[in-house]
Amino acid sequence: MLQFAPCLSKIDLVQDIPVLVENGVEMITINENEIFLDASDKKLVEIRKIFEEAGIEIHSVHGPGSKDLISFDPGLRNQSVEKFSRLIRHLSIAGVGIMVFHGGQVENENHLASAFSLLLESLEQLVKVAEEHHIVIALENDPYQESFPRGFCGNSHILLKLLESIDSPWLKACFDTGHAHINEGAQERIGDAIRNLGIWITTFHIHDNDGSGDLHIQPGYGTLNWDEFVSALQDIQYEGSMTIESEPWAGGTYRCMLEEVKALLKDSGADIPDELTLKPKADWLKNFPSGWKNSDLVIRCQRCGHYIVWTPDGGHCACKKLI
Q1: How many distinct helices (H) and strands (E) make up the chain?
Q2: Cβ contacts of residue 287 below 8 Å, gap of 6+?
Q3: Cα separation, 154 vs 159, whole angstroms
Q4: For 129-154, how does the pLDDT look when each residue is reduced to its tens digit (9 = 90+)?
């Protein structure tokens, strides 16, 4: 069964935890790695206890900038590996299971020719640390672009080759839908990329955009084909967790975002037990002309701009306008 974790760019342990609990959040991803990277062992244990007492699992944490993992300069590569290694150890103490990170940035064609071997060397060192501390490290696909500088892992084939070369249960893939959707027409389709990576995917970052840039819009409010996404999930039999790597749409709550995303993916065929849908109820549609009676029709609230989420009790939106 799919599970969903909202993503927090920064975390305030005093102010944010009560809000998450109030919104029924049981799992989160944190992009702010400094809170772990710079903490003492005692502080890391305190952080772990705070989340455990709140009933919230820290699903994953995003690593720091990874540009130097493929630097030509061995000193810079070693510094980067040491920084990542320290974070891996600290995440283990804090009870975090996954560290997500990028494979570095290539500056030009000459760099591109050497990047694979340089990154492979860094990954071999990080995997040893990950195994020692029982942390899965997940290499994320970069946004696709042709010009330099650019992320090295811009398609699933490079990512797969790296994973297969290391061949460790401690090195997996994090598939980012927003990155894959950028300039999707000029490269591989999202569904094809997911199927290509298959069992190597340990988690997802799901967010939306218009295909031109990394906008991090809540799923459903961009142009990504979520039917294709869910079809690919089913083909690889993925039933794990995924991070919603966006803020709630237009001032909504975390609870509202979770409901909308679950309804969106359930309508696309995902195995989600909640009785949620974005498709209007038949008895509500009967008041419209016959041309509106389309099973694919979804509607948005004129007041708050959110999709209407339908449950057995009726329809509601972010501003709690009942239909």
Answers
A1: 11, 12
A2: none
A3: 8
A4: 999 999 999 999 999 888 999 999 99
